[in-house]
């Protein structure tokens, strides 16, 4: 197998490195995008119940204990508790954007691997064809075996590039879809928390009617 890959030419080295980088980024994203690591269902239920009971201190403790994106969002809402709805909502949106960016971090690495790998394979194809035509120029087309090396190099590099690029593209789409699903769950939790900690839009920060 090693000899087979080596016969693909020098371009196999960057393709191999791209596959390692893409796999490492995917493994890291899979670990980060676990639901229990972002917005645990048990946390959402428990913190909502605490907020309904106005047990603000217990809710803050729970947020610090969970250490998740959901916990950080609820903690921000608790810090702005009693403020006007628009103010609390703005704080939540800022935190939500930051947490959403964290969920998508490193996904572009996988996307880059998906884009670059087939191009590297194409480069190997061109390289192999150049080798083939160079042999033809020097020896002619009479000896087919002398042409096999360049053609084989071209095909192997193309296969390698596609073999890395196609799974990387699927993984990239999955990571983005997973991040979007988790962001949606965070938004739903934020809306529930917003209703529980903010005052009426027609009241000022002191709770007096405007």
The helix content, as a percent range, equals over 70%
Given the structure, what is the number of helices? 9
- Beta-strand level of the residues, as a percent range? under 5%
| Strand element count | 0
Termini, distance in Å? 77 Å
Order of helices and strands: HHHHHHHHH
What low-confidence regions span 5 or more consecutive residues with pLDDT below 50?
Answer: 200-210
Average pLDDT for all residues: 83
Number of domains: 1
How does the helix and strand content classify structurally?
mainly alpha
Radius of gyration: 27 Å
The biggest sheet amounts to: none
Task: Assign an overall shape.
Answer: rod-shaped
Short recap of the structure:
81% of the residues lie in helices and 0% in strands. The chain is built from 9 helices and no strands.
Topology:
Blueprint: H1 2-6, H2 12-32, H3 35-38, H4 41-52, H5 56-66, H6 69-79, H7 85-104, H8 107-139, H9 145-197
Helix pairs in contact: 2-8, 2-9, 4-5, 4-9, 5-6, 6-7, 6-9, 7-9, 8-9
Structural notes for this entry:
- It contains nine helices and no strands.
- It is an all-alpha fold and 210 residues long.
- It has one domain (11-197).
- Helix 2 packs antiparallel against helix 8, helix 4 (41-52) runs parallel beside helix 9 (145-197) and helix 8 (107-139) runs antiparallel to helix 9 (145-197).
- The model is unreliable at 200-210 (pLDDT under 50).
